[in-house]
Amino acid sequence: MLLVDSHCHLDLLDLPQLGGSLEEVMERAASQGVGRMLCVSITLEDFPRVLALANAWEHVYASVGVHPNERDGREPTVADLISIAKAESKVIAIGETGLDYFRGNGDMDWQRERFRRHIAAARETGLPLIIHMRDAAEDTLNILREEGGAGIKGVMHCFTGDLATAQAAIELGFSISFSGILTFNSAADLREVAARIPEEYLLVETDSPYLAPVPHRGKPNHPGHVRQVAECLAGLRGVSLEHIARATTDNFSRLFDVRITA
Length: 262
Fold this sequence. Notes:
By secondary structure, the protein is of the alpha/beta class. The protein has a single domain, classed as TIM Barrel. It contains nine helices and eight strands. It has helices spanning 22-31, 47-56, 78-87, 109-125, 137-147, 163-171, 188-196, 226-237, 241-256, and strands spanning 3-8, 34-39, 60-64, 91-100, 129-134, 154-156, 174-178, 202-204. Helix 4 links the parallel strand 4 (91-100) and strand 5. The longest helix has 17 residues, at 109-125. The chain is globular. The N and C termini lie close together (7 Å).
């Protein structure tokens, strides 16, 4: 069995809380069947660390992008994103990008403009977009339609929306990734959505170091915990863990155009 953590932030892990070294984190993940990870960029300043991790570990990939909530660092241009993505073979995605109206306030044009730049870079490179969408589903989907529609692919990471939003994203060619939130007691509605998503669009993730799943909620999260997310998803859909592992690994491989063998 092989699982893929389709979204984590290895560069942000609190290693002392997780055993003291990245090697131990990797060993723990391997013991849970987690054999691939996508380490996601949130600022250009931190990207060199993300890339270094991907280059140091054969089973780790990287993305390049600036998170919608990041305001203090270097603002990415389309040319920045394209040049980095084309120069580095371990970069397999653009993002994390998108819209977040939960934390934002006032005029959000700057966030929408940054999102459009990431979309342009994805369109030029052919790489998938990793989208963060919080309290901004309508604008997120509308901008995707305006900027490329079905010509752009990607993933709605850490999805928490309703079934209609998921179906609209799928119509645009986007996969739906579920995190540890799926296991929370408060997530009954989300579990209903997860049970109904077409299998070929499913992914699982940790978003570690955030959002540790039950029974680890409130503790440091790490890629090994993606197994609990996959177990929950398997139970909701009435299939085996091995089935979900195979499906989500195949989906990751197809979306991000990487060859994965057990």
